[in-house]
Amino acid sequence: MGGHGYSAPSEPLKPLTPADEQYMSTPEGSGYEHTDANVWQIIKFGIWLMITALVVHLGMGAMYKFLIEQSKATTEQPYPLASTTDARLPPEPRLQQFPRNEYYQFHVTEQQKLESYGWVNKDAGIVHIPIEDAMRLTLERGLLQSSQEQAQPETPGLMPSDASSGRVMERRRQ
Q1: What is the pLDDT confidence band of residue 29, given thresholds at 50, 70 and 90?
Q2: What CA–CA distance (Å, rounded) separates 159 from 149?
Q3: Tell me, what's the pLDDT at 101?
Q4: Which H or E run contains 114?
Q5: Which residues of 136-153 are buried (b: 16+ CB within 10 A; e: fewer)?
């Protein structure tokens, strides 16, 4: 009743049985409760466990050595596709192994074409010249016309219809 968290049992205590009396006392000189664990059985189990682990490890080691020797003795490949020693490539088209290097090489090659002289078609007498020279010659010869001169004036009133999706021109009523 004193507020210590202990309350008296609601039922009366049962009388002790002979099995309960065995656990009531600990023999003198014991450092443990002699009824809880049988130390000799625990030691026997540990010894059996170590012997079993040793036998399993030795057996696995012997099997591993046997399999290594067997693989050395086998010279024939069991699968015909595995017998080729050269590297097989996948079918075309293949992925690029080094796309940055290939792009850089392409860029360098194209830049050399833009900055050098060379034949495009030797039989027809067609050559390519550096881009700077080509632009200078184009301006000197006046080959370019202004965009207004090239474009033809639109006919007023022609508009694409909604049904044509912009493909056919039709005259619009004004």
Answers
A1: confident
A2: 22
A3: 93
A4: helix 99-114
A5: eeeeeeeeeeeeeeeeee
Q: Which two tokens stand for residue 106?
A: 């392409």
The answer to whether 158 and 173 have CB atoms below 8 angstroms apart is no
Cβ neighbours for 159, distance < 8 A, ≥ 6 positions apart: 169, 170, 172
For position 159, what pLDDT does the model report?
61
Question: Rounded to whole angstroms, how far apart are CA atoms 57 and 51?
Answer: 10
pLDDT at 135 over 70: yes
Angle at 11 between CA 5 and CA 13, to 5 degrees: 95
Quick check: 109 and 103 in contact, CB under 8 A? no
**What's the pLDDT at 82?**
62
pLDDT reported for residue 130 = 92
Residues 144 and 131 sit within 8 Å (Cβ to Cβ): no
Residues 6+ apart with CB under 8 A from 132: 115
**Measured between alpha carbons, how far is 174 from 170 in angstroms, rounded to an integer?**
12
Rounded to a whole number of angstroms, the distance between the first and last alpha carbons of the chain is 109
